């Protein structure tokens, strides 16, 4: 990032990027802990994820305030304006990723027959893919790396394929084991939330690409 004549402008942009990084780190941790709590049936860890969401929300509000302040006081143009607008949008998307992790954590206490429930073992790999997308897109944002951003976008298809496979597996499981319908339905909800995390990581990647190049990827929706 080129230095500006007004040093305070550089400090504002650095602070804005720092807030995004902090939000992203918390969201990434929440994804992992939500999945861990689901697999282990750890209600205490699940509650920790739910409570962390308030911190993510407060950071988003701080990003909003700072972005508005920068636009009002600095009147950024070109690359600088793209940077601020992208940060504003990315913060909103990361907040939603935190919400999806919270939603997963809230389902932990609603899964019965945990030890005998084979479909439960299918979700960690899908969650790992989505979490990896979030990690990579945050790295791309920090480095303003459009190439890595495009790789994140390409990875979303793998998460979607995983979701379709899990969906079919769970439906079959419910048909063969009617007593597990309630728990299986909760896992379908979890799988959908993981799929949405992948979608939102893709959205962030598109914004990172825009902030770095001034253009959205050719294959963006």
The overall pLDDT average reads: 87
CATH fold label: Methane Monooxygenase Hydroxylase, Chain G, domain 1
Instruction: Give the distance, in angstroms, between the N- and C-terminal Cα atoms.
Output: 28 Å
Cα radius of gyration in angstroms: 19 Å
* Overall CATH class: Mainly Alpha
Secondary structure topology:
Blueprint: H1 7-40, H2 43-74, H3 78-106, H4 123-143, H5 146-176, H6 181-213
Helix pairs in contact: 1-2, 1-3, 1-4, 2-3, 3-6, 4-5, 4-6, 5-6
Task: Describe, in plain words, how this protein is organized in 3D.
The chain is mainly alpha-helical. It has one domain: Up-down Bundle (Methane Monooxygenase Hydroxylase, Chain G, domain 1). The protein contains six helices and no strands. α5 runs antiparallel to α6. The longest helix is centred in the first third of the chain and has 34 residues. The two termini are 28 Å apart. The model has no long low-confidence stretch (mean pLDDT 87).
Task: Provide the descriptors you would attach to this structure in a database record.
221 residues; elongated; Methane Monooxygenase Hydroxylase, Chain G, domain 1
Provide a compact summary of the structure.
By secondary structure, the protein is mainly alpha-helical. The chain has six helices and no strands. It is elongated.
């Amino acid at each position: 990032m080129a230095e500006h004549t007004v040093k305070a402008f550089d400090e504002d942009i650095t602070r804005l990027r720092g807030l995004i990084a902090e939000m992203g780190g918390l969201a990434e941790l929440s994804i992992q802990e939500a999945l861990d709590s689901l697999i282990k049936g750890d209600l205490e860890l699940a509650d920790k994820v739910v409570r962390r969401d308030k911190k993510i929300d407060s950071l988003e509000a701080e990003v909003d305030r700072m972005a508005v302040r920068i636009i009002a006081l600095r009147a950024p143009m070109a690359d600088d304006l793209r940077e601020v607008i992208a940060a504003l949008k990315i913060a909103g998307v990361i907040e939603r990723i935190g919400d999806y992790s919270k939603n997963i954590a809230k389902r932990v206490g609603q899964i019965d027959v945990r030890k005998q429930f084979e479909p439960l073992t299918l979700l960690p790999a899908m969650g790992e893919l989505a979490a990896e997308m979030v990690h990579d897109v945050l790295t791309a944002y920090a480095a303003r790396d459009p190439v890595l951003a495009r790789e994140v976008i390409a990875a979303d298809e793998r998460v979607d394929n995983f979701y379709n496979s899990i969906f079919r597996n769970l439906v079959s499981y419910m048909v063969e084991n009617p007593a597990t319908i309630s728990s299986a339905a909760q896992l379908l909800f979890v799988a959908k939330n993981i799929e949405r995390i992948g979608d939102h990581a893709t959205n962030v990647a598109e914004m990172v690409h825009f902030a770095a190049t001034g253009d959205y990827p050719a294959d963006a929706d």
